Amino acid sequence: MSAIALTDDARSRPLLWVLGLGTFAIGIDAFVVAGVLGEIARDLTTPIAGTGQLVTIFAVSYALLAPISAWALAGWSRRSVLLLAMTVFVAANVLSTLAPSFEVLALSRILAALGAASYTPQAVAAVSELVSPERKGRALSVVYGGMTVATALGVPFGTWIGQTLGWRATFATVVVLGLLTLLGMVILLPALAAPGSHRLSDRLSAITKPQVLTTLSITFLAALSEHTAYSYISVILDGTGFADLPIHPVALAFFGVGAVVGNFAAGFGTDRFGNRPVILFAVATQSVALLALAFLQSNPLAACLVLLVWGIAGWMYLVPIQHRLLDLSKTYGAFTVSLNSSVLYLGIGGGGALGGAFVSIFPPDQLGLLGFAIGLLALANALLAFRGKKEKGE
């Protein structure tokens, strides 16, 4: 199917927002559990430590299932995969809403991760078939922007619903969002062709290109750098001038606003300047922000500004990286993007584990230094990935 120019097809723009609504629902589902852990633990009479593993179950399941799903459903049209994936996601959240026990809730989290891991890479890959190349960056920022807005606004709202109406109401809200996405796709999503050969050997040959591997490693190192500190941001703020101030929501709101700005700026920047400078700028700026956090966190205003810049940079590298991967692996874009999702979640999980090991030895307020050091590795890796002749789109 030939690309559809965003300005030429009246269905393209609303369809992108529908796909973004799907990632918005997935973003809430992935991260809101942390905000209602206490309610879940009390209702299901489960220790809080065990309940906290629901977040890990979703993240690990997503990381493992994303490439498996992309390979297993390779012969299906994108429309069929997207509709099936969102159906599974909605059904899983219905099960979460009605779960009578922790075991059933944990199973529903695995099924929700399967739906999410099948949906997001296909939604991202579909952008190449829905818009003209010069608008791909902005289109990606709309689709992936759902995840960003979920982080900034959806998760706090979902947490409020859970604490006000009960944790089951939070999952019910996700069900409604998923059903709206399904309805929108049924009405607006055209019949997108299957991507071609689905032999595993063909797909693996596409991702063994050095440029693809180095790009995936940028995602891993940048996410590891970020979440080494972000996983413990409340502890970092508690240990400084924030301890006696009710400013955590304000500080995190600065980060959330920055995330939304960074995501959409990445789309425009990628279309205007190419993916290479946006990736380098984002990774470098995030590293500097983490360094600044280690020295400025005791000042509430300065720390909020650092979190704003960090939010902008931390959500600015994903769109151009996906843009680059789609350019490098045109035939197997969904499979390559699914691997990018996997390494992203591995970076998030690895950052939490590494940060935990660090704070068992060193003060939490120094986590920014560790994040900065890893960020330098991410930047060096990005420079390595961009050696040689500049390609179209970079």
Automatic annotation (TrEMBL):
CDD domains: MFS_NepI_like. Keywords: Cell membrane, Membrane, Transmembrane, Transmembrane helix. InterPro entries: MFS, MFS_dom, MFS_Efflux_Transporters, MFS_trans_sf, Tet-R_TetA/multi-R_MdtG-like. Its main location: membrane. One of its GO terms (cellular component) is plasma membrane. One of its GO terms (molecular function) is transmembrane transporter activity. It comes from the Bacteria. It holds the Pfam family MFS_1. It is a multi-pass membrane protein. This is Putative MFS family arabinose efflux permease. It comes from Rhizobium azibense. The lineage of its organism: Bacteria, Pseudomonadati, Pseudomonadota, Alphaproteobacteria, Hyphomicrobiales.
